[in-house]
Amino acid sequence: MENKFKFYNTLTRNVDTVIPHEDGKIAMYTCGPTVYHYAHIGNLRSYIMEDVLEKALRYVGYDVKRVMNITDVGHLSSDADTGEDKMLKGAKREHKTVMEIAKFYTDAFFEDCRKLNIKRPDVVEPATNCIPEFIHMIEVLLEKGFAYVAGGNVYFDTSKLDDYYVFSSQSEKELLVGVRDDVEEDVNKRNKNDFVLWFTKSKFEDQALKWESPWGVGYPGWHIECSCISMKHLGEYMDIHCGGVDNIFPHHTNEIAQSESYTGHKWCPYWFHVNHLNDKSGKMSKSKGDFLTVSLLQEKGYDPIVYRMFCLQSHYRKPLEFSYEVLDNMSAAYNKLVKKIAELKSEGSVDEARVAAYRERFSEALSNDLNTSMAITIVYDLLKDDMNDATKLALIQDFDTVLSLNLATARAAGKEEKKEVDAGLEAYVLAKIEERKEAKKAKDFAKADAIRDELAAKGIVLKDTREGVVWSMQ
Ligand code: AMP
Ligand code: ZN
Question: How far apart are the C-alpha atoms of 104 and 101, rounded to whole Å?
Answer without folding.
Answer: 5
